[in-house]
UniProtKB/TrEMBL annotation:
<protein>
    <submittedName>
        <fullName>Possible transposase</fullName>
    </submittedName>
</protein>
<keyword id="KW-0614">Plasmid</keyword>
<feature type="region of interest" description="Disordered">
    <location>
        <begin position="47"/>
        <end position="66"/>
    </location>
</feature>
<feature type="domain" description="HTH-like">
    <location>
        <begin position="2"/>
        <end position="45"/>
    </location>
</feature>
<dbReference type="InterPro" id="IPR025948">
    <property type="entry name" value="HTH-like_dom"/>
</dbReference>
<feature type="region of interest" description="Disordered">
    <location>
        <begin position="1"/>
        <end position="30"/>
    </location>
</feature>
<dbReference type="Pfam" id="PF13276">
    <property type="entry name" value="HTH_21"/>
</dbReference>
<feature type="compositionally biased region" description="Low complexity">
    <location>
        <begin position="55"/>
        <end position="66"/>
    </location>
</feature>
Amino acid sequence: MNIHTGHRGTYGAPRVHAEPRHRGRKVNRKRVTRLMRIHHIVGRHLHRTRRTTIADRTAPARPGPG
């Protein structure tokens, strides 16, 4: 899986599958997925976290339990 490591571990099965196809080699997507699963190779999940709540610092504190 030189494609995966060559892209610093960010490529998952769809992108790893697309690279050889772009170069003219026939590769089945399910085979790539299966081989990556067997060898415990996972692409990185780069999701941004969104801040949905902004605390009001002037609001009174909530009373604690009993």
